[in-house]
Amino acid sequence: MKRILLLGAGLSASTLIKYLLNHAEKNNWQLRVVDQSLDLVKFKLAGHPCGVALSFNALDRNERWEELKNADLVISMLPARFHVEIAKDCLELKKNLITPSYVSAEMRELNEEVRNAGLIFMNEVGVDPGIDHMSAMKIIDSIRNQGGVISGFKSYCGGLMAPESDTNPWNYKFTWNPRNVVLAAQGGTARYIDQHQYKYIPYTQVFNRLDTITVEGYGEFEGYANRDSLSYRAIYGMEDIPTIYRGTLRKNGFCQAWNVFVQLGLTDDSFMLQDSEDLTPRSFINAFLPFNESLSVEEKWIGACEKLGVSDLHKFEWLDLFDSSVKIGLKNATPAQILEKILVNKWVLEPEDKDMLVMVHQFTYLLNNEQRFIESSMVNIGDDPVHTAMSKTVGYPVGICAKLILQDQISDRGVLLPTKPEVYTPILEELESLGVVFQELEKAI
Questions:
Q1: Average pLDDT over the chain, rounded to whole?
Q2: What's 84's DSSP letter?
C-alpha cells in the first residue's frame, strides 16, 4: 500500500480528497489527511476505508516528521509560505512532493539537490497557476511543431459566480482566500510587454486599465493586469515574444467600484488603525474621508465616488458601509483586514450557490506567411459550496499529477512545473473526462 500524506483540508482540498479516495482502492492507496480541525477532515473523508483523519500542527517539524517519513508522496495544501520548509524535509527524507502554489526563489534553489536525489517536486499544478500553464503549453507546442512563430499571448483567469448564483450587485462572492482578494494586485507594479514596448501599471492604476473579454454564452468580463507577466516568457520558452500579458477576470463594473476602496486607502495592509475594535462600518469609511462638519458620511462618499467616475452607489449601500449600529470588532486591525471582515459577511456562499471558473487564452502567430489567431476558453461550474469550480480546478490536476507520480509516469526530476507534454497531456486529457474542457476558436486575421 502506498501512503499519500495531504497537509491541509481547506476549501481547495475538497475535490482533491474526493478524487484521491475515488482512486484509492484500485491503486492500493491510503490517504492520510492532516488539518488543525479533525472534524473537518472527518467530514471530508466521509468514513472512506482508505482515508485516515489526522490532526496536528503541520507547521511544527517535530509533529509532522513521522508522517512525512512514512509517506510515499506528500501534497502540501498549506499556505504557500510554508512549502519550502515542507520541501526541505521531503528532500532529507527522499519523498516526492506536490504543491499547487507558485514556485518561490527558495524552492527554485533546491532544484539541483532535488534532481540529484531523483525526486519530483511538482509545483504550480492547480488552476492558476496550473491549468493555465498546461492548456497554454499545449497550444504553444502545437504552433511550434507546425513551424509557426508566436507574436502575442494574453491569458486571463477569474473565479466568479455561476449565472444562477450571481445574486448581488458586485457579481462576486468569495470562493477562495478572502485576504488574497482584498490584497489583489498589491506588492509591486504590474509589468507586461506590448508590441515590444514594456508597460508598467502601478497599483493605484491597475483597476483603471482594463481589457474587455467576451466568452460565448457568458457575456462580457473585464480583465485587470496581474503583477508580473514578464516572468512567463521564460516559463513558456518565449523570451523574444513581442506581447505577453496575464490578467484577472471580473464581471463588468466590479473594478471601477473596487477602485474606490483602493484610492481611499481601504485596502492598505501596512498599518493598524487606532481603536479599531470600536469601529463600525460607517466610522471606518469616515476615517478615510475628509473632515467636513456640513456634509454627512454619505455625501462625502458620494463626492469621492464622483471624482473617480463612479455613479452607482448601490454596490456600496448593499455592503452596509454606512451602518453605525454594529461594531466590526477587530483589535489592532489594518484597513485591509477591516474591509475583509465587512466583505466576508456579505460575499458569502449560500447553501445552494455555485461558483464559476473562467479562463481565456489568446494567441497571435505567423504560420505559412499567414497571420492567425487562436482563442481558447474554459468555463467550469461548481457543484455546490464544497466542491466548487475553484476546488475542482485546483484539486483535479493535483490529484491526477499524484497518480502519475505514484505510477512512475513522469520521467523528469527536480523542482518542476507542468509544462512538458509527459505531464500536461495526460492531465488535460483526464480533465476533459471530468468536465474541465477548453473550446478553441482559430481563424486567419
A1: 96
A2: H
